């Protein structure tokens, strides 16, 4: 499983999202992922992918595409 | 019996307890079982002098609550389940009610302390960067009240009430005051608790307040019995839907019972022990009766706090005797639910309302030989049918908190 796939699986699992709702242009808040939920998810991603995402510039206004790109970029240099 | 002018209607009842996942299941179990079936030894209590408690088993909270589950601690989850049941039982539809006129008051003693404990362990073992960002919202005592508001879409006044083991009773009393003052038309009120914190149990064992009948945990909670040796905790939630009489009448609601009076007091005596003279609980009983406009002789049944500690059961029953004489049929339902701390008042008010409705007093399970120092008639063995017009539910908490509700038949 590549990183993007792994992130998507974690996202749909944790927030119980139908897979077809997780589209690149959708902002996270539209998936009911608010600022608190995003910080919870950041910890899950760090643990699952063994990454440090503390300074990754993410907010609930980030889109799914931006989330995936940011995490993949971090994973590539890790 | 005519309802007092200040009485409000109980139109919905919801319970999740070790005795059942619904009010009905709990009532049937509490009135028909001869022993509790959900006393367990959780891992967190392993090797403590008291390593058992009453647990709610077989309820799939994740499935029932969906995404809400992630943002609520267990006591709040139990509160949400009980609130949904109470509101459905009342025939209310949260999609159409005037949400600004719906209040929520949930009592709890320890709130989300278990989650605090869990994350303290993460902090110690893995450091600050691995701590979850939701310790504050999940551990606060108001997590149940706010979760119920969010789940139901209740937008009126809301409050967590915390007076140790009197919390649930004080929550319902607070809601009664709000309804009388016109601050809301409907109130969802009661208590919720789920505590398995090893720290608190270890400490309460040191206090020697918990039963240490480890060879027979199901028989350990034995209120008013001569061989009782301490309380046994339980988890659960009990919530009522309360409405102004006029509001209930206008929408043609079925009234299950009436909440007629509330009294509370403080012993101003000790952080833990009740004042052995029992003046505080006696004052709360008399205040609740006066608030209801009723006389001691009207009360036919008392769902006592009856924790199964040596001192509580003596002090409380002596105070009941001074106020009522030996007429009311007394019971403690804690041998079936455990002592659910801040939830106890909510669960026991619900059971008191059901006793009035069903004209049936639940037995005090595990009571074999009544302590000769207990001067009241305590129902033991099997449930007792009785003509009941009025009943009281009492709670005594650490810190000298005493609270009493008086209910009347619908």
Describe this structure in words.
- The complex is a heterodimer of chains A (78) and B (410).
- With 78 residues, chain A is mainly alpha-helical.
- Chain A is 54% helix and 0% strand.
- Chain B has a single domain (8-409), classed as Thiolase/Chalcone synthase (Peroxisomal Thiolase, Chain A, domain 1), CATH 3.40.47.
- Chain B contains 13 helices and 15 strands.
- Chain B is globular.
- Rg of chain B, Cα atoms, Å: 20 Å
- What overall geometry of chain A do the principal axes of the alpha carbons give? globular
Radius of gyration of chain A: 11 Å
End-to-end separation of chain B: 9 Å
**Largest sheet geometry of chain B:** 11 strands, mixed
Low-confidence stretches of chain A: none
Total DSSP helices of chain B: 13
> What's the main sheet of chain A like?
none
Protein name (chain A): Acyl carrier protein
Domain Carrier (chain A): 1-75
Pfam families (chain A): PP-binding (PF00550)
Keywords (chain B): Acyltransferase, Transferase
Helix and strand topology:
The complex is a heterodimer of chains A (78) and B (410).
Chain A: H1 3-15, H2 35-49, H3 64-77
Helix pairs in contact in A: 1-2, 1-3
Chain B: E1 8-16, H1 23-32, E2 39-40, E3 53-54, H2 61-65, H3 74-89, E4 102-107, H4 113-126, H5 135-139, H6 143-152, E5 158-161, H7 167-180, E6 186-193, H8 198-206, E7 236-244, H9 245-250, E8 257-266, H10 279-292, E9 301-303, H11 310-324, E10 329-331, H12 334-337, H13 344-358, E11 360-361, E12 377-378, E13 384-385, E14 390-397, E15 401-409
Parallel strand pairs in B: 4-5, 4-6, 9-10, 9-14, 10-12
Antiparallel strand pairs in B: 1-7, 1-8, 2-3, 6-7, 8-15, 11-13, 14-15
Helix pairs in contact in B: 3-6, 7-13, 10-11
């Amino acid at each position: 499983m590549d990183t993007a796939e792994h992130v998507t699986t974690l996202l749909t699992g944790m927030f119980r999202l139908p897979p077809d709702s997780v589209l690149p242009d959708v902002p996270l808040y539209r998936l009911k992922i608010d600022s608190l939920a995003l910080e919870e998810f950041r910890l899950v991603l760090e643990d699952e992918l063994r990454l440090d995402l503390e300074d990754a510039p993410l907010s609930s206004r980030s889109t799914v595409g931006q989330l995936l790109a940011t995490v993949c970029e971090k994973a590539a240099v890790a | 019996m005519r309802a007092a002018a200040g009485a409000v209607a109980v139109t919905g009842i919801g319970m999740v307890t070790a005795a059942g996942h619904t009010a009905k299941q709990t009532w049937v179990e509490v009135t028909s079982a001869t022993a509790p079936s959900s006393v367990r030894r959780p891992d967190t209590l392993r090797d403590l002098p008291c390593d058992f408690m009453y647990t709610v088993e077989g309820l799939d909270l994740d499935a029932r609550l969906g995404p809400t589950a992630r943002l609520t601690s267990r006591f709040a989850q139990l509160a949400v389940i009980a609130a949904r049941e109470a509101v459905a039982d009342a025939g209310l539809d949260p999609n159409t009610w005037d949400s600004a006129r719906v209040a929520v008051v949930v009592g709890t003693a320890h709130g989300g302390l278990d989650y605090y404990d869990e994350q303290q362990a993460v902090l110690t073992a893995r450091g600050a960067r691995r701590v979850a960002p939701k310790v504050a919202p999940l551990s606060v005592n108001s997590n149940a009240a706010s979760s119920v508001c969010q789940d139901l879409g209740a937008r009126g006044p809301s409050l967590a009430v915390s007076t140790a083991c009197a919390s649930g009773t004080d929550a319902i009393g607070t809601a009664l005051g709000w309804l009388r003052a016109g601050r809301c038309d409907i109130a969802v009120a009661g208590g919720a608790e789920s505590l398995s914190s090893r720290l608190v149990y270890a400490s309460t064992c040191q206090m020697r307040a918990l039963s240490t009948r480890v060879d027979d945990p199901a028989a350990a909670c034995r209120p008013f019995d001569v061989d009782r040796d301490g309380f046994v905790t339980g988890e659960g939630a009990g919530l009522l839907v309360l409405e102004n009489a006029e509001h209930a009448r206008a929408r043609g609601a079925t009234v299950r019972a009436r909440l007629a009076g509330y009294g509370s007091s403080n012993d101003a005596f000790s952080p833990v022990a009740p004042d052995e003279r029992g003046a505080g609980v006696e004052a709360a009983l008399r205040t609740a009766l006066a608030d209801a406009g009723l006389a001691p002789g009207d009360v036919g049944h008392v769902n006592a706090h009856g924790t199964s500690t040596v001192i509580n059961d003596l002090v409380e029953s002596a105070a009941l005797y001074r106020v009522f004489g030996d007429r009311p049929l007394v019971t403690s339902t804690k041998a079936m639910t455990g002592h659910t701390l801040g939830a106890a008042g909510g669960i026991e008010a619900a059971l008191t309302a059901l006793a009035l409705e069903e004209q049936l007093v639940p037995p005090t399970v595990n009571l074999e030989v009544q302590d000769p120092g207990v001067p009241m008639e305590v129902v033991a063995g099997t449930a007792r049918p009785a003509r009941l017009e009025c009943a009281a539910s009492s709670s005594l908490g650490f810190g000298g908190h005493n609270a009493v509700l008086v209910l009347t038949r619908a």
